[in-house]
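I have been asked to look over a protein record a colleague put together. Alongside the sequence sits a line of tokens, each denoting a local backbone shape. Please read both lines and tell me whether the tokens look consistent with the sequence. I do not need a full report, just your reasoning and any doubts. I have pasted the whole thing underneath without changing anything.
>
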Amino acid sequence: MPYLRNCWYLAAWSDEVGDEFLERRLLGDSVLMYRLSDGSVAALSNRCPHRFAPLHLGKRVGDAIQCPYHGLQYASDGSCIANPQGNRATPAAARLHRYPVNERFGAIWYWPGDPSLADPSAIPDLSFLTDARSVGVHGYLHTEANYELLSDNILDLGHADYLHPTSLGSKLNQPLENRWSH
């Protein structure tokens, strides 16, 4: 399925990403996120390029990821930094895709497209999410639906009065003569 790639996506809430690996399928890709010792977040492809083992099943060695299959280690920039096999040479082709990330508004944003186009100023202003006067609910809602339908549903608020009259709807679904009566 084609996706818009040269844009920021909210990948996780800040409090979901810690020292342990968080694996999430985003735009059809398995992405591995974890917090580095300096507090920043790394987001990398979740498959070892050697034997395609899922790296979230591996372990951390400092800020590096150790593959559970043969023990190759990858730095947070995606480069292979250790190979316990054979002559211990680190193959240059053994590299993970590193996604640009930015932590803002209590969320981890990731850029799945061309890294040279990842401009943090393009992240939408959702500062209300961290406003102490607001109450928010964090979580992840897995939906078996095309993302275009979800976007359309969220952006098309006009349908709420008719499709969700008892939960999200308003007085708009009432006959005109009853809408503004006191």
User: Anything to note?
Assistant: The chain is about 10% helix and 25% strand.
